[in-house]
Amino acid sequence: MDTFEIDSALDMHLHLRDGDMLKLVGPLTSETFSGALVMPNLVPPITTKEALLSYKKRIKEACIEDKFEPYVTLFFQNDYSYSFLEDIKDDIIAIKLYPAGITTNSETGVSSMDVEVLRPTLESMSKLGIPLCIHGETNGFVMDREKEFMPIYESIASSFPDLKIIMEHITTKDAIELLDKYDNLYATVTLHHLLITLDDVAGGMLSPHLFCKPIAKRPEDRDALLNAALKAHPKLMFGSDSAPHPKHKKECCGCAAGVFTSPIALQVLTQLFEENNSLDNLNAFISLNAQKIYDFKPLNKKVKLEKKKFVVPSSYKFKGEDVVPMYAGEVLNWSISSIEDKRD
Amino acid sequence: MDTFEIDSALDMHLHLRDGDMLKLVGPLTSETFSGALVMPNLVPPITTKEALLSYKKRIKEACIEDKFEPYVTLFFQNDYSYSFLEDIKDDIIAIKLYPAGITTNSETGVSSMDVEVLRPTLESMSKLGIPLCIHGETNGFVMDREKEFMPIYESIASSFPDLKIIMEHITTKDAIELLDKYDNLYATVTLHHLLITLDDVAGGMLSPHLFCKPIAKRPEDRDALLNAALKAHPKLMFGSDSAPHPKHKKECCGCAAGVFTSPIALQVLTQLFEENNSLDNLNAFISLNAQKIYDFKPLNKKVKLEKKKFVVPSSYKFKGEDVVPMYAGEVLNWSISSIEDKRD
């Protein structure tokens, strides 16, 4: 097959940042994606309706107009009242929970993952039908952090059977196995965790541009993630976790975590699914699964790809910002030939 | 205790490089260490008597004269003849074996670790009493490379019971356990592998200056190494594997592996052994064990340390070279108060 069409691609885990960085990366996502679930870990994080609507407005201004829907999220707090959540319910797609200090801008996350501590907000969310997205890592040894979080997922999933829980950016075989154990557990997986292991980060030279949180794990973990994605496991969605960091913060002594994949995600996914004879499942993985899980209808956007060499830019720039994408300077086998946008 | 004396400190695994880098790091080691086993992985590697003696001469010229003995090594090759080894025997302390491509400048290492392939050289070494130092890693997944090498150590140790085999820079619990299984197996351990795990390299921000090969492993591995060192396990020697890389090759996109510890090793080891109530064992770990294992008498050099703050320089420079040490800019509790050098 030399051409392929992706319908209404959705990125269910995206960092768009703010300011000039938003103006740089917003257009890159909104060019090819129909919509994206946007993370709320700004500084300060999004915890009020005012901040939420204002951020949504800034995203819409930065993105390609009328061709992209940002699905915004709230930063989880233990003390959200039922009435506050009821009022904000229609403006958000989900609430994102971060353990405190676990990743970029998560300092004000929850300091205890005890179900009883989280209960007030979770009970309201469950009643109101607001999904819960979780960054599921403990502060243990870096290779064990996600695995150690599994009992916490289990405890929340069993305590709130009506709450939809999304395990974000999963990286392990353990998380894939947990997916099938609880009806109300779902997951996103990134592009890079389908492709790399710790070997790619630190097995040869050290590769700052592949350093991310959660860190890439073992070959058997990557294989389990890839197999589930290729067969479009119905509880698994694509979420790039594409996280732009300025070049100087990646190539330095003590560099920040995050891989920037938005502008190359569709091309690489097409190549990956084609190589594994799974192109028939790509639209489910990248759009239909998310529509069913979150129960919404995205903007209609068709991206046509063709099997034609595409050289990934060495970096993307806007004003003072300079972001290096995954596969910078390398050649991909698939490129985007046209984008068709139809409002229903 | 507020003072401590180290007698004839030996670094049994050291990279001194060549040229200006040798002129920068040679004096830093030879100031405090009585002697060091110097690795032969130059470009090209040391494989002839001429190259060996010429390198030894350059090291002596670069180091503090008459106060330091470089114990030089040959780069293992499958085709060394018995007569060549017999002739070079008294000029070397050991021969170092690298699997091809496994670390810096090891491209011309052996391409098979099959005992039968290695047999000719190993049989000659065994007969002549030349110890074998091994960089024991497979080319598997980065966290498994040393563990996967254990059967190869076992195969060589059991095939050549009279050959002294040193497992270099061990990083795992598995290697510590193997030490006690074969009479002819010994090991060196670095300073940094007594102190760090993968968490320190990639658990928070990425730390290029702690990136090394073999990569730092899990907490239980570090604990096993530290316990063995603190009790001065008689088959374990200190070998810093101190490896200077120019600053620009560490703080860049795709950085080189190696931690530079030579100028701070004695201070940090004293602090570490004191904190663990093991100062009585430090001289065995850092000198006596190596003297017994390799059967030699080092130059007499006494280093007196006192419990007094020492700020580690942010880098060491010589001409165009600029090397960042471990703990750059940080404060240590012990400093060197005097160095006494006596020729017997």
UniProtKB/TrEMBL annotation, chains A, B:
Pathway the protein acts in: Pyrimidine metabolism; UMP biosynthesis via de novo pathway; (S)-dihydroorotate from bicarbonate: step 3/3
SUPFAM superfamilies: Metallo-dependent hydrolases (SSF51556)
UniProt binding sites for Zn(2+) 1: H13, H15, K96, D241
Domain Amidohydrolase-related, first and last residues per copy: 115-294
Annotated keywords: Hydrolase, Metal-binding, Pyrimidine biosynthesis, Zinc
Matches recorded under PROSITE patterns: DIHYDROOROTASE_1 (PS00482), DIHYDROOROTASE_2 (PS00483)
Amino-acid positions noted as binding substrate in the UniProt annotation, renumbered to this chain: H15, L16, R17, N41, H135, H245, A257
First-level EC class: hydrolase
Pfam families recorded: Amidohydro_2
Catalytic activity from the UniProt record: (S)-dihydroorotate + H2O = N-carbamoyl-L-aspartate + H(+)
One example GO MF annotation: dihydroorotase activity
EC identifiers of the protein: 3.5.2.3
Cofactor: binding comment: Binds 2 Zn(2+) ions per subunit.
Biological process, per Gene Ontology: 'de novo' pyrimidine nucleobase biosynthetic process; 'de novo' UMP biosynthetic process
GO terms under cellular component: cytosol
Required cofactor(s): Zn(2+)
Function: Catalyzes the reversible cyclization of carbamoyl aspartate to dihydroorotate.
Xref: HAMAP family: PyrC_classII
Family: Belongs to the metallo-dependent hydrolases superfamily. DHOase family. Class II DHOase subfamily.
Subunit and interaction comment: Homodimer.
Protein name: Dihydroorotase
Species of provenance: Halarcobacter mediterraneus
